[in-house]
Design brief:
By secondary structure, the protein is an alpha/beta fold. Helix 5 runs antiparallel to helix 6. The relative contact order is 0.14.
C-alpha cells in the first residue's frame, strides 16, 4: 500500500490517493482536481472514492472518477443541497445534480473491502452531521474531524459542538500510534495530536 497526498484548491485541502499495484482508492478529491484526476485515471484503476464529509472542498473532485462514491449516511443529502455542501456559499454550480451517481452510504463500524484493503468506518459527527473517518491498517484518514494543531470548525448549519467534542474524544481513545492524515494541514501521530489540542478541547463551551 502506498499513500500519495495532494494539497490543493483555495482551501489547501488534503486529498489522498491510496494504491495497491494498479488499483487505487481516493479520499476527499478537492476542487480544481480535474488535471490531477486525469493523470490518476490514466495510471490507476480507481475502484472507489471515499468522502469524509459533504463539503465542496472534499467532494467536488469526485465527479472526475467513475467509481462508486462512499459517504456517511447523514451527509448524503449534501450532493443535492447546496447549503449543506457549501456550493451556495462559494457561488459555484453543484455538478452532481446533472450526473448519474453511484453513492454508497456508510455507517459507524462498517467494514469495507477495497483493493485488497480492510477499511473501517468510524462515525465522527460534529463538523458535519455525517462526518466519518476511515481507518486503514495503521493510517487514520480524519477529514475535518481532527486536525494536528487545532479544533475543526463547528459553525456550519449541520455542525454540532457537543457532537464534535464526543467524536474527538472517541478518536483519542484509539491507539496513539495511529498515523493521522487530516483534511487540512499536517499529518502526525494520534498521540501527538492529543497533546497538541487536548487543552483546546477542554475550554470549548
Amino acid at each position: 500500500m502506498e499513500i500519495i497526498k495532494y494539497t490543493g484548491s483555495i482551501f489547501f485541502t488534503n486529498t489522498y490517493l491510496i494504491t495497491c499495484g494498479e488499483e487505487a482508492i481516493i479520499i476527499d478529491p478537492t476542487l480544481d482536481f480535474k488535471e490531477q484526476a486525469s493523470i490518476i485515471n490514466n495510471k490507476y484503476n480507481v475502484k472507489a472514492v471515499l468522502l469524509t464529509h459533504g463539503h465542496i472542498d472534499h467532494m467536488d473532485g469526485a465527479r472526475y472518477f467513475k467509481a462508486p462514491i462512499y459517504i456517511g449516511l447523514s451527509d448524503y443529502e449534501a450532493f443535492f443541497n447546496d447549503e449543506l455542501s457549501l456550493y451556495k456559499d462559494m457561488n459555484i454550480k453543484n455538478p452532481f445534480k446533472d450526473l448519474e451517481l453511484n453513492i454508497i452510504k456508510v455507517r459507524n463500524n462498517d467494514s469495507l473491502k477495497l483493493i485488497g484493503l480492510d477499511i473501517k468506518v468510524i462515525y465522527t459527527p460534529g463538523h458535519t452531521k455525517g462526518s466519518v473517518c476511515y481507518l486503514i491498517k495503521n493510517d487514520l484518514f480524519s477529514g475535518d474531524s481532527l486536525f494536528y494543531y487545532g479544533i475543526p470548525r463547528y459553525d456550519f448549519i449541520n455542525s454540532n459542538l457537543n457532537d464534535l467534542k464526543k467524536s474527538i474524544n472517541k478518536l483519542f481513545s484509539l491507539d496513539p500510534n495511529l498515523y493521522v492524515h487530516p483534511g487540512h494541514d499536517e499529518e502526525g501521530l494520534l498521540g501527538n495530536i492529543k497533546k497538541n489540542i487536548y487543552k483546546y478541547l477542554q475550554i470549548l463551551h
